[in-house]
Specification:
The complex is a heterodimer of chains A (about 240) and B (about 70). With about 240 residues, chain A is mainly α. Chain A has seven helices and no strands. The longest helix of chain A has about 40 residues. The two termini of chain A are about 20 Å apart. By secondary structure, chain B is mostly helical. Chain B starts with 15 loop residues before the first helix and ends in a 6-residue tail after the last helix. Classes of the chains: A mainly alpha (about 240), B mainly alpha (about 70). At the A-B interface, helix 1, helix 3, helix 4, helix 5 and helix 7 of A face helix 1 and helix 4 of B.
């Protein structure tokens, strides 16, 4: 395998998909974030912690513009990060993935990883806009979320490996994983925070959030698959003797 | 002239060094965007970084949008 080319392809596809994710968030998710932070501000005014003055508004607007630029910046960082995990799993599993081209193989893997380490955890611990989370439960919520993702991801790999070892059909592995994650889903405690924010805002935010994260996974599969198809980093370097 | 070079590879032919490098990028990026509360900058600025939570504020919108717990 061409090591350097492999790493470059993985990082480039992660960055590009992350840029798409961050850009899409500016369009689809930011309106809900602005609305939720507006509610937070109303709470600050009501409690007397801040005053609704033109100075506050000017400072707040500048701050939000800076945070929105961070949305795109963080999109690229997160894109490269998740893309790196995707690249590792793709390289290790490429020979076992269905599909004749690397684009199809990458899309299949993106779909599996989207389901197991994003969508199922999202159903258990859905995204929330600002104002919902209680600062006092942040560590517990982080532990629960990461634990569920890890259990789901390693569970999927475990059942796949087990079916390979036992030489059973893939459908058995899928059924085993489904039963396993179903039990974990019910057994793990839910998000401890009470939602007092209007539910239509929360639900709209969740829908938009799930849409842009899904767009990220689709872009990641397409871009990495296309680059892999084109540059073929898995091919050995042919030694030349002069 | 002959030259031999040894690179550790996994049984799938993927260089171990590439897996380690990408795993480090994965962990670091995930921590920066999803979990940092001043930890990284505290290495330079000390306790003050936990008050400023600069990275948290910069990645705040993506943290919410990508589904990470936040307050």
């Amino acid at each position: 395998m061409k090591t350097f080319l492999f790493i470059v392809i993985v990082i480039a596809s992660g960055a590009a998909a992350g840029l798409i994710h961050g850009g899409a968030n500016l369009i689809f998710v930011e309106p809900s974030l602005d609305q939720a932070i507006g509610i937070e501000n109303q709470h600050l005014f009501a409690s007397g912690e801040e005053k609704d003055t033109p100075e506050f508004r000017a400072q707040y607007d500048d701050y939000r513009i800076w945070q929105k630029s961070g949305q795109v910046f963080a999109g690229v960082i997160l894109g490269v990060s998740i893309g790196s995990l995707f690249g590792i799993v793709f390289a290790l599993s490429r020979n076992s993935l269905p599909g004749k081209t690397d684009i199809k193989k990458a899309l299949v893997l993106a779909g599996i990883m989207w389901l197991t380490i994003y969508f199922i955890p999202f159903l258990k611990y859905p995204a929330n806009p600002p104002t919902v989370g209680n600062p006092e439960t942040i560590v517990l919520r982080e532990i629960l979320y990461l634990t569920f993702i890890a259990i789901s991801g390693f569970g999927a790999v475990g059942f796949y490996k087990l079916s390979q070892k036992l030489k059973t059909k893939k459908i058995i592995a899928i059924a085993g994983y489904a039963a396993f994650i179903g039990i974990v889903f019910v057994a793990m405690p839910g998000n401890p925070d009470q939602i007092t924010t209007p539910m239509d805002l929360v639900e709209h935010f969740r829908m938009m959030s799930a849409f842009t994260v899904s767009l990220y996974w689709l872009s990641l599969g397409l871009i990495l698959g296309s680059l892999w198809n084109h540059y073929k980093p898995h091919k050995e370097i042919t030694p030349s003797f002069n | 002239m002959s030259q031999s070079r040894q690179i550790s590879v996994s049984k799938n032919g993927v260089p171990v060094i590439a897996i380690v490098a990408l795993a480090m990028i994965f962990a670091t990026g995930l921590f920066v965007v999803g979990f940092d509360q001043g930890h990284i900058f505290s290495l330079v600025y000390g306790e003050e970084a936990f008050h400023d939570i600069y990275i948290h504020e910069l990645t705040h919108d993506m943290r919410h949008a990508a589904g990470f717990p936040c307050h």
